[in-house]
Design brief:
Length: about 350
Amino acid sequence: MSTNLSDHTTFKVGGPASEFFVAKDEDEAIRLVSEADQKKLPVLILGGGSNILVTDSGFPGRVIKMEITGDIRAVDSCSGGMITIGAGRDWDDFVDECVRKGFVGVESLSGIPGTVGAAPIQNIGAYGHDLSEATARVRAFDRVAKEIVTFSQSECGYSYRSSRFKENSERYLILDVTFQMKQGELSLPILYPELAEALDVEEEERAPLGRVREAVLAIRGRKGMVIDPNDLDTNSAGSFFTNPIVAQSQVPDGATSWPSGDGRFKISAAWLMENAGISKGMKLANARISSKHVLALTNPGEASASEIKALADLCTEKVRGKFGIELEREVRLVGFAQ
């Protein structure tokens, strides 16, 4: 298997790793990370490579690609299912299976690239729902305590696009995630106007699981947010920035915003970028803003990691200069000066 990280990331950029290993089971994953820690080697845990931007010089340490795909289920007709999935399972494959088998709770998260093990780190979310709603527990190897630990949903520290695993990114190696989902034919309430319109339902109503998945995939596809090997516009990490959360007094006039639940407001990062002069299709050297969605920074074929980083910096500077608001990256930078 190639050690060049451009072959293992959705940006299709990144230089070689000093060491590259694939972990097929949790014992192997724990051994590999523990050995590296003992040797004081830098460690990069890699899932689907869909949320990182690695420098062109690569990674001067040990990369461990997680391919643990264990699957344990306890299902009954009354309480639904407690489903434990290995960290290396492809996220969207899991969502597809849940929808086909009538498990309710992750249908709105269709089409998000990456793995099950990476999902809790970012508390992935879309169209009004996020992973925290379906999580029962997360099992991980604590690299400090050197033991396997289990966190209940409430102990995961979930917040908007964050968790205790993101806040302690060098400490926990996620091994598997247990989901608690009811069985049924109808989805969770539809909370996102664009999705409700696509399904021809009112907000807060429910819709058949299969229709929700199809609609989400169609919307994401139009925005270039579903990985398509035949479309260079999807050589990206999806949304590069999160929606800023600010005090009401900081919300620009006319901005697309909504209450965040704590007295502050969440502002559309896409609105901020577009109104700061960032447009779809805009280029900087060989890096480009997606022609489909301004939040997606892309590698249309020849871009380097440094060029993508420079484009991200330009976006940040323009928004800061126009609105005095700091965009926060959703994408993790590896090897760059922060």
